[in-house]
Amino acid sequence: MNSKTYIKGRGAQLNTPNKFFELSHQMREDFLEYCRLEGEEADKNKTEYLEVFPKTIVNKVDSPDVGMMYSLNPYQGCEHGCIYCYARNTHEYWGYSAGLDFERKILVKKNAPQLLEEKIKRKNWKTHPIVLSGNTDCYQPAEQQYAITRKCLEIFLRYRHPVGIITKNAWITRDLDILKELAQDNLVGVNISITSLKEDTRRILEPRTATIKRRLETVEVLSRNGIPVNVMLAPIIPAINSHEILPLAKAASQHGARSIGFTVVRLNGAIGQIFTDWVKKTLPDRADKILHQIQDCHGGTLNDSRYGLRTRGEGKIAQHIHTLIKIARQKYFKDKNFPQLNTTLHEVYKSGQMKLF
Q: Iron as a keyword (predicted)?
């Protein structure tokens, strides 16, 4: 890794052009050299929180292979900086880059709790689990300042509405009090993402996430308090973490997880360019091997949009991953299961009081 050109604490190492804009901004080498000679900072690498007020907050998920029908994202963009994140492309819809902008310009949806309450109180709303973080992590660093996720959980509890959570941040344990109450009525399920047992790998893949140790401790704490946890081994990246599937599954089971899920990495849209730039700077000795093996899983391309195949992959390498997952489930999760969430209570709590008849 070239420490002179590598931006510490970030996943992406550049801002890719926004496909919706005709013009783009580029950091030229001569400008960088000028800044170096003058002792100036060419890029301050600061995170910026931008408060926004959307008109809706609950999104219907039309993709048939995602595993959720509705999602809610309190924040757009994510400071965690995971290099592979599929959500990067959505930042372009807000006028930003899928690269560094995605990690440094975080849109904070301050009215999310109000919009959520209005949505689930509607007479025509049919109860179905809403997943926090279907796109960006609801427990990213911004949550410590704004607590929007906690406010949303309070609403889910008040109206006894089922909620799913996807995160890779130990900060979720702050809300253990609410989660325990939700779990008493089988109204919550948590998905913790763990991609490696090696801190060196975690640091370069997911620079601003919780450590592996803290994530495993989080799985244990949630499980011990009766909150069902599914560990997502996601994404599996050939030649980076594909050899860790069985150890990861074992650790997840030992810490109380009830199940595991997985996806094979895919690099759609701008993510292909962002990941390629990153891997050549970070892991130059095996960058070509990693890229070629990813392509092998997706019909020779980094960009795979085929429903049913895009997250599972195909070919020999993908099949090997599937086989290891099957073995892991049989070995470590044979007598465990992740429950279906309860959708029967919300209707009687929808008006704010129990129905008499």
A: yes
Domain contains 111: yes
Closest alpha carbon to 267 in 277, 256, 282, 257: 277
The pairs formed by 308-312 with CB atoms below 8 angstroms and a separation of 24 or more are 308/64, 308/65, 310/65, 310/266, 310/268, 311/65, 311/263, 311/264, 311/266, 312/263, 312/264
- Is 22 a domain residue? no
Burial status of residue 1 (CB atoms within 10 A of its CB: 0-12, 13-18, 19 or more): exposed
Tens digits of residue pLDDT in 188-208: 999 999 999 999 999 999 999
Query: Per-residue pLDDT tens for 18-43?
Result: 877 655 566 666 756 666 776 766 66
DSSP class of residue 10?
Answer: -
> What CATH number is associated with residue 152?
3.20.20.70
Instruction: Confirm if 182 and 156 have CB atoms less than 8 A apart.
Output: yes
* Residue pLDDT, tens place only, 337-349: 999 999 999 999 9
Indicate whether 103 belongs to any domain. Answer: yes
Residue at 8 is within a domain: no
Domain hosting residue 70, numbered range? 29-335
Q: What is the pLDDT of residue 32?
A: 60
Q: How many domains does the chain have?
A: 1
What are the DSSP E strand ranges found in the chain?
A: 48-52, 58-60, 70-72, 75-76, 105-109, 130-132, 163-167, 188-193, 229-236, 259-264
Q: What is the Cα–Cα distance from 232 to 249, expressed in whole angstroms?
A: 9
* Number of neighbouring beta carbons within 10 Å of residue 195: 26
**What letter does residue 124 receive in the DSSP assignment?**
T
Distances 211 to 108, 136, 206, 217, 233 between C-alpha atoms, Å: 24, 18, 9, 10, 15
The answer to whether the predicted template modeling score (pTM) of the entire model surpasses 0.70 is yes
Confidence bin at 297 (pLDDT 50/70/90): very high
